[in-house]
Specification:
The chain is of the alpha/beta class. The chain is built from 19 helices and 16 strands. It has helices at 2-22, 41-47, 51-54, 72-79, 120-148, 161-173, 190-200, 219-227, 245-248, 264-276, 302-307, 313-319, 336-351, 359-367, 373-387, 399-402, 414-433, 436-443, 447-457; strands at 26-31, 36-39, 83-88, 94-103, 109-118, 180-183, 209-213, 228-229, 242-243, 253-257, 278-279, 288-289, 293-298, 322-325, 356-357, 392-393. The strands form five sheets. It has a five-stranded antiparallel beta sheet. Strands 7-10-13-6-14 form a five-stranded parallel beta sheet. A hairpin with a 4-residue loop joins strand 1 (26-31) and strand 2 (36-39). Helix 6 crosses helix 7 (190-200), helix 13 packs across helix 15 and helix 18 (436-443) crosses helix 19 (447-457).
Length: 459
Amino acid sequence: MEMGRTKDTACLLGELEEILEASFDGIMVTDGNGNCLMANSSYTRNTGIRRDEIVGHNMRELINPVWMKRSIALDVIENGCAMSMEHDTQNGNHISVTGTPIFDEKNEVKRVVVNTRDISEINHLKLKLGEAQAMEKLYLKSMGIHRELIDIDNDTVVINNRMRDIYEVAKRVSTYNTTVLITGESGTGKELVARYIHKEDKSRCDKPMVVINCGAIPANLLESELFGYVEGAFTGAIRGGKKGLFEEADRGVIFLDEIGEMELSLQVKLLRVLESRKIMRIGQREEIPIDVRIIAATNRDLEREVREGRFRDDLYYRLNVVSLKVPPLRERIDEVVPLATKFVNQFNTLYGQKKKLTYSLIKELERYEWPGNIRELKNVIENLVVVSDDDYLYGDTLPWRKKQKAVWYGEQTLKEAVETFEKDFLIKAREKWKTTERMAEALEVNQSTISRKLNKYGI
């Protein structure tokens, strides 16, 4: 009878061990003194501690200042109650640990059952959920902003306070037939401001706005383009002559873009037009009255151009009746998201796509300096929509990220340069493979190495 009971007990213990071994959660059991009695495979997988390193050992032997600063089993024994904590393990996992005491008849702790669960993936999913929610907020904010925008055209977003001030001044001056000079870097949207003035000018909005880039036309042809010519004025002149752009813009607006590129000899003739409101075709003696509003723009510092003798001071003062300076995109980062959203929607419609911005891409766009301003942003978004083979647009697909293959790290030591490269490399790897496990597999190193380096660089 006794032998039968022993056999039954052995079978029961065997089944219990199989059940514990099959558990997805890590399970480790200690006695009341902190000596480890058993640990299943899930526990060793979660913690990175081998069975022979823990079973038969006291938990105090494992405590160290790097990856096990405290033992939940010892805490439970000391406090006499269930306790929980989160813990970064030596193999790079982030685990949730719970210790539960079992008491004897004297109400003293005789066993501690420790449960562990790897929550690295859960935290990663929380991070992705947080990014998705942040992205949703950005989209909603962008949509709300679009409903409040000044209605200008498809390439314009006015959110930044400085830009709002510019467009408010533009709206006020639109009611006066005065000359406006718009300055700012290339690609900031100077022509858009000029078009807004034309649109808001009720006396001219139904008449043409003629645009000419003074830097794109050779100097010897610019005069004939602006003022026209009569038949036979020069070799190659067409029969009957030709109207100039000033005449084409009569009763409307002429926009002289890149006015700083105009040669001094032609500046004199433009000044004459501004003062007399009359033009003279090449080869013609009589003047033709015109009713044209003049808006000029430049990416040059015209005051410096005047000081250095490359631009006439009298023309500068005649143009600079009202001056509007458009700030670069890097000084209006709050407009990057709605602009990017608008451009994605435009190009999705144009190319029949359904591409979407991601949080990582938005953050990268907001960090970039944008030397080409809005024009560059629009070109970048078009490139991403056309080239990307994914419906989601990521930061690592940006053109400047692809060019960062060879980087000079300046006045750094070799160690500092290696660390700089390693950090940049790990940032890109984290964006691509997401989890430390997948990173370790792709880069052919231990997961603990990846986790240690991510912690080192604060990634």
